[in-house]
Every structure is written in structure tokens, then in C-alpha cells.
Design goal:
single chain; 442 residues; mainly alpha; 2 domains; two-stranded antiparallel sheet; 14 helices; 8 strands; 7% strand; globular
């Protein structure tokens, strides 16, 4: 069956990618639900509560599938990555444990109150439950991102006598500067995902002539939030994340751009194909000096290429890293353009009658999912060949007694289970969309 490490990596990457399709929507929806409940409290208009009630149901379905698909990831630390867990468990076990013990329980408890407690709680109490749900989901996100940030930029640890790492400063570990940038970038991206989904449903209802008041509300909320947060994902959070990569992972930066040679006034590659064997970018279209400015703040800054570093420290799949980065950046730019045009037409009162743009909004909901998946691929492929950057290599982290055949078999099992879950999920979501808000003015 081949190399066990390959199958360990494939299984974790597959399950993590599939799992994250769900929490990226729930984290963004948690914010939008709070916003809708707040608007309902302030205005006294029932349409905001109707919209919130609908999106709470969508949240609940996503949350349930996210929990089921996230459980295997926790077990894989022990089954597939036991050497890594032994080495780093004294550090990353802190945030993983806190995520399950505090944030997940907070989120799941108040979700129950939101779904089933509206008739028993006052309007302010129900709004408070929405706030707690938002806090729980975003706190959960921080603990997970802080764990990943340590793997990208390890701080607050000390080496133990047995060769493992132990926590030396909980404050430094939890307040890792890499975590700040990565967290804000990730959470804002989750709102973009939710905003595109909200706008997509609004566009669908508008095209079908259904739930007209709710369709109008969803279009307005989705497009405005989608534009604002798409811009914020690019700048300042994306820009800050890029500068951290340039400072702490310069080899990753070079691979993201397919840059082999070093030099000042480094150009930003818009289009091109990396040819690793020939150490060059084929058919490049570049913007001169822009990469130097983005990475280091001046157009004349020197940006090192891959040839300035030992080849055994290069990311192991430069092509995948390069294309993932450019897909993420390209889709991010496209999302800003689509939502910017939608907001302009909304302001002019012409969005609901512009059928081509409504079709574009309805069909654009996969864009943030693809962009986010590509962004995580950049982070994970870029960190290679390290599991913990500069400390612990991926090749050291597997479970030596778990053979490739076992992992291949369970990967196929996960694929089968996820296929069934996908069908059930799509059925339940489709049923909710067809049913629409629980009360509306048609």
C-alpha cells in the first residue's frame, strides 16, 4: 500500500478539509444571527426575528454535521500521529482540551436554547443566548487557531529531559502574535462564507418570486456584509498574515510565489506555472516590485528565492502551494468585485431586478468555501517539511505501528460515511430552503 506517512497525511488532510466546510459557515452565521437579533430588538420588526429563526435552523444542521465530522480528527492525533502527540502534547493539549471543555460546551448548550427556547425566553434572553452562541463558536475557533499557530510559529515552550516539549509560558503560547493575525483572518473569512450563503439564498428566493420580504432582507444583509468582510479579509488581515510569513517563514513565501532567484524589487506573480525541475516560472505575468512592498513594506526590499535555502527545507509540494495561494488570492479579488457591484446596485435600488447579477450571487456561494480551503492548503503545505516549524519534521510524527493498509482502509470508510452525511445534509438544507422562514409576508 506504499508509505504509511503518505496515508496518514492524506487521511488527516481529507477529514480536516471536509470537516471545515461546516464550522466556517456556523462561525460566520453566529455573527449574522446576533446582528439580526439585535436589529429585531432595536426596531421591533418581526422580519429580523423571522430571518434569524431560519438561519438558526441552518446553523443547527451545520453544527450537527460539523461535530460528527470533527470527532475523527481528535482520534487521529493518537492513532495516526502518536509520535507527534508524544512530542507536543504537553503544549497543544492545553488549547485542544480547552476547546472541548469550555468553548464547545458553551456553543452547544446555547444552541439548544436558541432552537427550542424562543417561546420560553424573553426577547432579550433569546438575544443573550445568540450572543453566548457567538462567543462559544468564536472562542472555539480561537483555541483551534492558536494550536495551529503554534505549529506555524512555536513560542512559549521549553524542551523537557525526555526530548518532548512542555509549556513554559501559557500567556506567550495563547497570545502568540501569529495566532492574532491568523485568527482575525479566519474569523472574518467565516463571515464572508456566511454572507455569500445568505446572499445566495436571498437571490434564489428573489429569482423564484418567493418570500419577497425575506429575500430582500437576505440580499441586503448578505451583500453588505459580504463586501465589507471580503475587503477586511484582504486588508488588513491578509496583508498582516503575509508579512508574518515573510518574517518567520521566508521559504514559504518564496514557494507561494514560485520564486527561485533572490533580489530586490521582487515582482508579484499574477499568472504563471512553476517549473521546479528548471527552477523557474513559466509564462509569468508579474507586477514589478509589488511583492517586495507587500512582504517588507518597501519596493526596493530584497526577497530571497528558494535557491537561497537548502533544498531539504523547501515545501514538499511547491506546485500545490503555488496554485493554492493564487486560487485563494484570485477568488478573494473576485469576491470583492462581485459584492462591490451588488452593493452598488443595491444602493441604486436595482439589485432585485438585475437577473444576471442575481444568478451570479446565487451561484457564487462556493467561492468562499474554495478560497478558504485553498487558504488552509497554503498554511499547511507551506509549513512542510515541518509539523512544528523548525522543531519537528512531518516525517518524525507518524505512528510507526500503524501500517499503510490500515489507514487506507479507514480512509475509504470515512469517504463512505462522508458521502452518506453529504446526502443527508443536502436533503435537510434543501428542505429548509424550500420551507423558508417560519413566518413571512409573501
Amino acid at each position: 500500500m506504499g508509505d504509511p506517512l503518505f496515508w496518514h497525511r492524506l487521511q488527516f488532510g481529507f477529514t480536516a478539509t471536509y470537516h471545515y466546510l461546516f464550522p466556517q459557515l456556523t462561525m460566520g452565521l453566529a455573527f449574522i444571527i446576533v446582528l439580526l437579533k439585535a436589529l429585531g430588538l432595536r426596531s421591533g420588526e418581526g422580519r429580523y426575528n423571522d430571518a434569524a429563526r431560519f438561519w438558526i435552523r441552518i446553523f443547527g444542521i451545520n453544527f450537527a454535521v460539523g461535530v460528527v465530522t470533527g470527532i475523527p480528527l481528535e482520534f487521529q492525533f493518537g492513532t495516526n500521529w502518536s509520535s507527534f502527540s508524544r512530542f507536543s502534547g504537553g503544549v497543544i493539549g492545553q488549547t485542544l482540551g480547552m476547546e472541548g471543555l469550555f468553548a464547545f460546551l458553551l456553543e452547544s448548550s446555547f444552541l439548544g436554547l436558541l432552537i427550542w427556547g424562543e417561546q420560553k425566553l424573553s426577547p432579550k434572553g433569546h438575544f443573550g443566548a445568540a450572543l453566548a452562541l457567538w462567543l462559544g463558536s468564536w472562542l472555539s475557533g480561537y483555541f483551534i487557531v492558536a494550536t495551529n499557530a503554534f505549529m506555524q510559529h512555536p513560542v512559549g515552550y521549553t524542551m523537557a529531559a525526555d526530548g518532548s516539549i512542555q509549556l513554559a509560558s501559557f500567556r506567550s503560547f495563547l497570545l502568540n502574535p501569529w495566532a492574532h493575525a491568523q485568527y482575525t483572518h479566519t474569523m472574518l473569512a467565516s463571515v464572508v462564507t456566511a454572507a455569500f450563503v445568505v446572499a445566495s439564498i436571498g437571490a434564489f428566493w428573489t429569482l423564484k418570486g418567493l418570500h419577497t420580504e425575506q429575500a430582500r432582507l437576505n440580499l441586503r444583509v448578505g451583500t453588505i456584509l459580504g463586501f465589507i468582510f471580503s475587503v477586511l479579509v484582504a486588508f488588513p488581515t491578509g496583508d498582516l498574515q503575509g508579512k508574518l510569513v515573510a518574517k518567520y517563514q521566508p521559504i514559504t513565501l518564496a514557494a507561494m510565489e514560485g520564486r527561485f532567484e533572490s533580489g530586490p524589487r521582487a515582482g508579484l506573480t499574477l499568472v504563471g506555472e512553476p517549473n521546479v525541475a528548471r527552477r523557474k516560472i513559466e509564462n509569468p505575468i508579474k507586477v514589478p516590485a509589488v511583492l517586495s512592498f507587500i512582504a517588507y513594506g518597501t519596493f526596493s526590499s530584497n526577497v530571497k528565492g528558494l535557491l537561497a535555502y537548502p533544498e531539504d527545507q523547501w515545501p514538499q509540494n511547491i506546485e500545490m502551494l503555488y496554485y493554492s495561494f493564487h486560487i485563494m488570492a484570485g477568488l478573494g479579488t473576485l469576491m470583492i468585485a462581485v459584492m462591490g457591484l451588488a452593493v452598488l446596485l443595491l444602493w441604486r435600488g436595482r439589485l432585485e431586478t438585475n437577473r444576471p447579477l442575481l444568478w451570479a450571487l446565487m451561484l457564487a456561494f462556493p467561492f468562499p468555501y474554495i478560497a478558504t480551503t485553498a487558504g488552509w492548503a497554503v498554511a499547511e503545505f507551506g509549513r512542510q517539511p515541518w509539523l512544528i516549524y523548525g522543531l519537528f519534521r512531518t516525517a518524525q510524527g507518524g505512528s510507526p505501528t500503524v501500517h499503510a493498509g490500515y489507514t487506507a482502509f479507514t480512509t475509504l470508510g470515512f469517504a463512505g460515511i462522508f458521502t452518506v452525511l453529504s446526502c443527508l445534509f443536502l436533503y435537510l438544507i434543501g428542505r429548509e430552503i424550500a420551507h423558508g422562514p417560519s413566518s413571512h409576508q409573501a
